[in-house]
Amino acid sequence: MQLFQKLLIVVTAWVAAWPVAAPAQSDDFKTAQSLDIFHSMVRELSLFYVDSVKIDRLVEIGIEAMLESLDPYTVYIPEEVSGDFDIVTTGQYGGVGALIRKASGGIEISEQYEGFPADRAGLVAGDLLVEIDGQNARDMPVDKASKTLRGIAGTPVALKVVKLRGGDTLSLSVVRERVHLSDIAFAGLVADSTGYIRVTAFTKDGSRDFKNAFLSLQKTGRLRRLIIDVRSNGGGLLEEAVNMVGLFVPRGTEVVTARGRIKLFEATYRTQEAPLDTQIPIVVLVNNASASAAEILAGALQDLDRAVIVGTRTFGKGLVQAVRKLGYNTQLKVTSAKYYIPSGRCIQIIDYSHRNEDGSAGNIPDSLRRAFQTKNGRTVYDGGGITPDITAEPPTYARTTYELVARDIPWNYSVRYFATHPAIAAPEDFHLTDDDYEDFIEYAVGRQFDGRTASELQFEKLIETLRYEQLYDDTKDELTALQAKINTDKRDKLRRYRPELQPLLEEEICARYYYTSGRIRAMLRRDTQVKTAVELGMATSE
Fold this sequence. Notes:
- By secondary structure, the chain is an alpha+beta fold.
- It has helices spanning about 1-15, 25-50, 55-70, 80-90, 115-120, 140-150, 205-220, 240-245, 295-305, 400-405, 410-420, 435-445, 455-470, 470-485, 490-495, 500-525, 530-540; strands spanning about 75, 90-95, 100-105, 105-110, 130, 135, 155-160, 170-175, 175-180, 185-190, 195-200, 225-230, 255-260, 265-270, 280-285, 310, 320-325, 330-340, 370-375, 380, 390.
- It folds into four domains: about 1-70, no CATH class; about 90-180, PDZ domain (Pdz3 Domain), CATH 2.30.42; about 185-325 and about 335-395, 2-enoyl-CoA Hydratase, Chain A, domain 1; about 400-530, no CATH class.
- Helix 1 packs antiparallel against helix 2, helix 7 (about 205-220) runs parallel beside helix 8 (about 240-245) and helix 8 runs parallel beside helix 9.
- About 30% of the residues are buried.
């Protein structure tokens, strides 16, 4: 009832403080009237509803429904998830540095972060936690396990672990520490003289990590061009994106302006430090999941004619959020302004209520888009996201491949492989043999997954339609012959889709031995969008 009591106090005080002499039809009066009605509604439900009701949950539902009528980014942050919100914005938390998931018999390590307590203690993906701080973890929900593993940096957490390799049960004491998830998943040279930096988020000090990565590439003496990869980067702190842009443009360059209804939230962000390199050719890789700060980075470098953008149109999120404290450790993340990049355009999608199924910006009619000019006079458009200078589509996959990934079968096989292979070649050189892939096939067919292809699903719908329209009997022989050609068993499908499945398997296996950077190093071998960026960078620098 704490939230209910708080609501009563706040609403009563708000209504009482409203000007009594306000005109009957004024906005102030209507607001006070609405709040009074809401207060009365909650009170009456609490007292007279036929069944007992949890008023705090009822109020929370009302808050969520109210915010859903605005935009997707104005959200209520209750006390129980405030800690997770802090992790998103700071990239830091107190814990052991591992991802976990629920498994039969306990809590399974799904990934350990390189160099952090879990990794130093020898925990690996596939290890099973059966006891956490004296609590039986065999039936423990994963959210409770996560909360138990987290805690104040410097404090120990006792673990009982069944090891993947060997199956021994060990008792460990792991000291929690402040875990900082670096925004830089990988930095290295590709194609000999092309630098590649993968940026996964924009959290506190992310620009510092980026700067250090770039300086390390410079020290090789081979750096001639740079690829900045912000594909599937959902954004984060605006200042970090501004600082990254500032590494490649003159000090004092305007990167983005926030404008809204309240002057308090308006601001112009300029680069503050001297740049590291204003001449190196840059390609920025984006996709439909590049959002917010990632779009500001890409869009500002495009508007300033400092980089070429490659990939697919970005998400289209150009709204500014401010976090307001509501009391009782709850918060409101409220949209307070819009972002405008150097050309003057806004990256926010015009109609954020109608997006594609994946949430990205839908098709925007040309009639609704306005033209703007880059620093050198090139034409760019607003209306939703950043449109690449060069479109490079990502690979497409068969339905069977998506189904296997959704069922975690490649991940599970990678753990099985890791358990029986002490070491593998470097990610750039690792390849599964024919025998390895056949072993995967036998493993996969023994797992539960829907092996139907998209063609088989469409064929089943066709049969249903023909039966409904009473045409099936007339076409039965032809359909039976066609079905025999379309339908194949799971083994045949997995062999047919080997060209797309094997790279995914190799990337997952490399992650078991070489962490996240190993997955990316393996991915870079076949990444067609990166290949396009490399070729473009070479052509630009010649």
